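Note to self: the last two entries modelled the partners one at a time, which told us nothing about the interface. This time every component goes in together.
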Amino acid sequence: MAKSGDTAHLYDGKTVRSAAPSRKKLAGTSSSTGEIPKDAIPTVEIPSFIESLLGGPLVPKMKFLPADKMVQNLQLGCYGILIALGVLTYIVTPATGTLWFAVTGSMAVASVLQLIVVVGAVGTGFWGTMTRDARFLLVSYVMFILSVMRFASSKVSLSQDVFGGEETQFLLTILVVVYAVLLVMYFELSNGVLRFSMLDTSIRTREVYVMNVKKIIGKYHRSLIINPLIAGTLALLVLSVNTILPAFISLFSEQTALRMEESIELISVYGVALGTLFVFLIVGGLFVLDLPSHLQSWRENKE
Amino acid sequence: MWSRKSAMLGSLAVAMYLLGLTLRNTQLVTIAVVIFVFLTWAAIFGGHADVSASGRRADEWSGEEGVSLSNVSAMRKLSSARIFEDGEVGVTLRMQNNSGLGKILEVRDRVPEVMRIKDGANYILMELGPRRETFIEYTVECPLRGFYSLGPVAVRVQDPFGLFHKEKELHVYNDFLVFPKMEDLSDTFVKSRVPKIFTGAVNIRQPGPGSEFYSLREYFEGDSFRAINWSAYARTGRLMVNERERDAVSDIILIVDSRAVSETGPVSRNALVYSTRAAASLAKFFLGRRDSVGLVTYSDEVVSIDRDTGSKQLYVILTKLAGAMSRGNIPLQVVVNRILPHINKGSPIIVMSNLEDDPTIITALRDFRARDFDVTVLSPSSLEFEFDAKRLDRTGYEVLKTERDILISELSSLGVNIMDWEPDMLLSTALAGARGF
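The predicted structure of the combined assembly is written out below.
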């Protein structure tokens, strides 16, 4: 039975108290130890330095209820992507150029270490997704990024070239794009597991009511398919700058186009950077012109 | 507006892009490009929802209002604008999407912190079709008296990945009043010994001290022999007494202590809460008896409601009690000095105070008694509230209790009807105790 003086039911489970300062002081001085009782001092939660930087707790303190079907599906999707991502990461990130190769100088040791990092990333990802613990997911993200951080001399090389993809530039590009898309999808899906767990818990604890759940979830599912396709296509375009740019230039000068095609810079990472720059200059321009707002306005007012 | 997630992804993309150029690593640059595309797509084509309602009024608002939210409007209807404590208010929120585009909206109707959602929800995630409207219904329970305001309605749309959002506060406010709850005091006997001279004929139609015959009833022990109706006795063979109609009304003055110290104790159990409930109950009782009731509250200022009768006066008093805030530390003597010249001699005065931190209490009440006022003090014990909340240890409690008992007996010796009102005691019991019944 709740105590008669308990106000927890009024303030979301917190007991809120107020007292005149003189009374608090008196309560403190009149105790046998001479200390102010802990109960007399209101609890104040001060965010840690990291929390204040991030604007909130890194790991939500909310306890999730058992996963519902939607969350379970997301978890399954996440496991699938993790496996594919683990395999691809291992293929597209050979041990050469890695930090451990630079430190140890041994290809064998570096390969083992690289494999450990990839397996570790997959393992923590699995555990984090299964337990819905953001800390493990964060470790997994860091390990995946760590595994790809290597000096590559603008060259995409593979640790395991099963299908002879290293010979075909286009296939290699596709492989890298698929890898990048899978990595971003992993970020999103694992985050989705936490977001929808929170939402599901809020719904089941009646903190929030959701109307037309199917439509809302459907929209998320659609986005999970459309966004990676678009991101992959655009990234492919950017990475194919060494083909697209000469083709465009050839309309004006065949010779310049040929020189560009054979240019080392254009097929190097700087060529990719140049392509990215072009694309995002266009996107930036659209934002300067406030295209998203105009587009939204047009869509809203369309009959 | 960027979310924390999109800001972190954006920073990661920039870092990877620069690192990719430094390490001449195409994979890193590719990941950065994919993240950039993700963010750009969400920013352009996302249009959608959690809410941070600040409770600001329209004139203070300087926040973001996205295009996608300019066509969303809200209206609210309350089932009642005035209720009593522990009562419920039904809220109907009507959300309209006036645009030709369906939206996934997150809507939170801001409810005062002390209120509890009983049915339904004030926080809703919904898909609102083009040119559609929906009704959100919920019920709030209001456990504490006061002036309250519902609103604003905070609306948010965000992209499906939660990367960008647009927020808007719809400044729809509904004010309502929660009166202190009242107790039935039909068995309470507080009478004026000096009838008020009432101009004009007033038919009170209640038994009491007076000259006009009201009814006959059986004799009870303690009834005056002068009241026995001998002819009725001869007729019926049983002792019958005449009851007379009250031909006088009293001026009742209620004094409520709402100084800062009166709120000592838990939010829902403190002297001020008890005092306001007692004052409301007493006002209802006396006004129902056709007495004239006035109210004085003192905090950092002395606020008084002049004596009057009728149900309108009850609502005036209830409204004032609903808005009584604990602040300041005006001594009771100031109140006595101010009201003494304006009240009829002998009128019953009921003071509701925890008798804390006021060195003038004894002299103030002595002044009343010296002028032959019938003074009753109901003193909700802050000590008990504190002790119940486990904020006072046993030794401290005993010491303070002794001090309080001494003060109470001193006041009692002045002829003040005083009751140390303990938290679990009913008002009628406390009143009866104070009056010696």
